[in-house]
Amino acid sequence: MSCLTDFDASELFQHINAREFSCVELMSAYIERINTLNPQINAIVALRPAELLLQEAAKADQSPRRGWLHGVPIAIKDLAETRGLTTTYGSPLFSDHIPRHDCGLVKRIRDAGAIIIGKTNTPEFGLGSHSYNPVYGTTKNPYNTALSAGGSSGGAAAALAARLLPVADGSDMMGSLRNPAAFNNVYGFRPSVGRIPSDKAIDTCQFPLATTGPMGRSIMDVARLLDTMVSHDPTMPWSLAPASSFADALQDDQQSVAGMRIGWIGNANGHYPMENGMLELCQSSLRTFESLGCTVQNVELTFDLDALFNAWCTLRSHAVAMGLQTLFKNPARRALIKPEAQWEIERGLNITAHQVFEASTVRSAWYARAAQMLTEVDALCLPSAAVFPFAAEQHWPDTINTQPMSTYHEWMDVVVPASIAGLPTIALPAGFNESGLPGGIQLMGRYGADLDMLRLGQAYHEQTQWPSRRPPT
């Protein structure tokens, strides 16, 4: 029965629709596998009782098909409000928080027929690319359980790799989809900002730094979940107009990627320190695109990347502080916030309006530079992470090849160019190093060109099938 957990979500839809197995059989297989493997990796938290899940699966068997996720087990990232299910944000301040309503994202996933079985683990308030918190503990990497699964969508990525989930939602501010995708040999897609509306936006006129997005073991699953997550909100200025189905476009696609141009940034002439072996592994993956008829060329960013990172830090700290300042200003609550979050909030509260303006002008200049480069190539390519999975007990890498990291997130600098510009970015597995640890690349495209990035990802997936290389667990 456990072989049912090997199917991608798109395959599950076909089998369930054809009544080749029941939703109860599928749920039983996932419960068995989660009970066996989740204690090793701690990817899924707040798991609901098995008897309730089986009851919902039985009801799904007796009900008309609601959508492509009908009867499929899904766990929601523990940053999204989920009705009747503990939603902690990884913080002890919310350890008993049970929302009465679903956020819009979760509602759309339920409406597609999914059975929500629990949550996926995340760092406290989603800050940092390593999924540990004082509520649920640390998520481990299925390829080596002594190592990190990344974050903040680390629980989602680890659950996908270990076949505890067929598809998963994630979110990405500073690589929170892309780092875990690289660490766990799966796919993650950061869509154009505005493609998926934010449920928590207060200042809707400011160009957002973060977005939710889909993760999966196949690009078709990523596209289908993206279709589910997309929603146009006319009250939000950056909400993109509804697009036709990304999954249908890929399914019917007769367009070859041959002739598409990929610009390889690499380590940007040494600006981004890289762990030994990372650049070579990522460059080797580019040969797949060349075999598909794409052209790959080295590109120069010709931009002040130190200024870009400083601008990012200013805008990020400002955004985090505005969201968490109420908790921080209460001394009793502040004591229960992790040091990195306290540092981020305090820094943000001391940032001036002039500093925010200066950072925004750097952001605008980079957007213009990236847009210009993306008239010369169809995608810009970088490693998804500068390091391979690191020790699970280490909170964050404080050095890369002896170069010290000045902040808890400087080691994630390689994801900033896409994040700060809000560009659609697909994270793809690049293979494994000599120690058997996964690495990955990211392709970022023109704003709004989400389908082009998915098309490149689909062609790459068909050639490589990297997620079929299962973890030793």
Fold and architecture overview:
There is one protein chain. This protein is of the alpha+beta class. The chain has one domain (2-312, 339-468): Amidase signature (AS) enzymes (Alpha-Beta Complex). Helices cover 37% and strands 15% of the residues. The protein is built from 15 helices and 17 strands. The protein has helices at residues 9-17, 23-41, 50-62, 104-111, 154-161, 178-184, 219-229, 246-251, 278-291, 305-328, 331-334, 339-349, 353-373, 416-421, 450-464, and strands at 44-45, 73-77, 115-120, 132-133, 137-138, 140-141, 144-148, 167-172, 187-190, 211-216, 261-264, 295-298, 379-383, 399-400, 403-404, 425-432, 438-444. It has an 8-stranded mixed sheet, with helices on both faces. Helix 2 packs antiparallel against helix 3 and helix 7 (219-229) runs antiparallel to helix 15 (450-464). The longest helix is centred in the last third of the chain and has 24 residues, at 305-328. The protein starts with 8 loop residues before the first helix and ends in a 9-residue tail after the last helix. The model has no long low-confidence stretch (mean pLDDT 96).
CATH architecture: Alpha-Beta Complex
Shape: globular
Total domain count: 1
Helicity, in percent?
A: 25-40%
By DSSP, the count of extended strands is 17
User: Which structural class do the helices and strands define?
Assistant: alpha+beta
Mean pLDDT: 96
| Order of strands in the sheet with most strands | 8-10-9-16-17-13-11-12
Radius of gyration: 21 Å
- What is the CATH C-level name? Alpha Beta
**Name of the CATH homologous superfamily:** Amidase signature (AS) domain
CATH topology heading? Amidase signature (AS) enzymes
Largest sheet, strands/sense/barrel: 8 strands, mixed
Given the structure, what is the number of helices? 15
Q: What proportion strand?
A: 15-25%
The quaternary state of the protein chains shown equals: single chain
Distance from first to last alpha carbon: 17 Å
Low-confidence stretches: none
